[in-house]
Structure formats: C-alpha cells, structure tokens
Amino acid sequence: MRISDFQELITGEKLPQEILKLTLKHLLLALDFLHSECDIAHTDIQAKNILMRIEDETVLSEFEEAEIQDPSPRKIDGKRTIYTSRQLRIRGSVGRPVLCDFGEARVGDKKFTEDIQPFLYRAPEVLLRKPWGKKVDIWNLGVLGKLLFDGRDINDETTNEVHFAEMIALLGSPPQGVLDGSPIIREFFDNNGNWIDETKVPSKSLEEMEENLTGRDQVAFLEFMRKMLRWVPEDRMSAFDLLDDPWLNS
C-alpha cells in the first residue's frame, strides 16, 4: 500500500506523529545508503512513492479470495486490459515504509541541471535552474514531512511564483549567494535580492503554520524541519546526521 493510500484511511489524511517519525526515520536510512554508498539522488520523494509493508499476510489471501468471488470491473482498451483498483483491508499495525520508484534518480557525485521534483517539493536550486546535487533529496524530505503531518494534498496547484513566495514566508529572504548565477533571477528578485513578483508573500511563518503540536514537541519538530529546509544546499544536514535528531528519536 502506498502511504498516500494509507493517508486516505485517516481522518484529515494527517499521519499521526509516531507513524510520521517511523516513516521519516526509514526514509533517512534509505537516503543515507543512496547518498553515501551508491552516489544516487532519488529526486522524486513523495507520498505515492513510499510503500508500507504488509505485516499481516492474511490480508493478501483475503484480497485474492475477494477477487475470485467478486472480480473487479475491467475493460479492454486495444491490447491491454484495465482493471478497477480494489482496496486492501489493513488490520493491526502498519509495516515498515519502503522508498520506491527510481525512474527519476540520478547517478554520480556531480551536479545536474534538469528539472526534477513535483512543484511543491522542488528545492530552491531547482526552481532557480542552478546546478543541483543529492541535497535536493533532503529538502524534498523536509517538505514531505510537513505535508504528511498537515494532510496537504500534493496535487495542490502551485506555480514557481507561489512556491518561491511560500519559501520566503517560511525561511526569510534568500542569501544573495543562492540567487547568484540563476538564469531566471530577474523574474523574481531585484539587484538587492528583494522580491519583485506580484505574488504576495504569505504572512505566516513556519512556526505559525505548525498547528499539530504545541510546546516542546512543536519546538523540537520545527528544529528538525529547519535542519532540512535551508536555502543553501550545503547547510542542509546529511541523512546520516538527521538520524540522530532529538525529535525523531523521542
């Protein structure tokens, strides 16, 4: 089951804190292996690309029996048969999250320049069309964590302008070094790094947007997010170091 499907079974589609921690911890383990051992950037970490393992395998036999007794509707389209999806019944605890779909992955310890990532997940360097590397995955994971906690739909429509404005609201204005060298910089910023686009920068900060937690839990969670959501790629913590985060292990 995809974690996006699992969300649909939860009120408000918001992952509980403990399941979110479990998910992020296993994704960090996967990214540490990909980045450190394989020189691979995944570049497409989103809810539909994370599978939850099935702990109780009787779910599968029940699924098979249900299909035999009441086959799913289908139609033939040319040379292929299209089946209506059948929902798995999940009982008990969910299994270990697994990162999948490496169709957009990039191999090699070098910089790339092509567009990657769905809009809501795009790192600043990707939006600015600057060279990027494996640290785009760390930004990507930070955004995913917030979206899973908030229940926000990844299909929310957005644009470069809206995405940039949200980044500024959450992180403040970008350092000049982040803007330097971008071929599209003058579409959004003046020579002094000030925002000039007509899109309004939201008034809510990251702290004001976090409504799932309060007190120390909220502070610890936001500190974890800020280790990943940074303008400068080199300032983002590695997957290995993030595994020691206090909130993640609390």
Automatic annotation (TrEMBL):
Its EC number is 2.7.11.1. SUPFAM superfamilies: Protein kinase-like (PK-like). SMART domains: S_TKc (SM00220). GO terms for molecular function: ATP binding; protein serine/threonine kinase activity. GO terms for biological process: regulation of mRNA processing; spliceosomal complex assembly. Keywords: ATP-binding, Kinase, Nucleotide-binding, Serine/threonine-protein kinase, Transferase. Residues 1-248 form the Protein kinase domain. It catalyses: L-seryl-[protein] + ATP = O-phospho-L-seryl-[protein] + ADP + H(+); L-threonyl-[protein] + ATP = O-phospho-L-threonyl-[protein] + ADP + H(+). The keyword Kinase applies. Pfam families: Pkinase. This is non-specific serine/threonine protein kinase. It comes from Glarea lozoyensis (strain ATCC 20868 / MF5171).
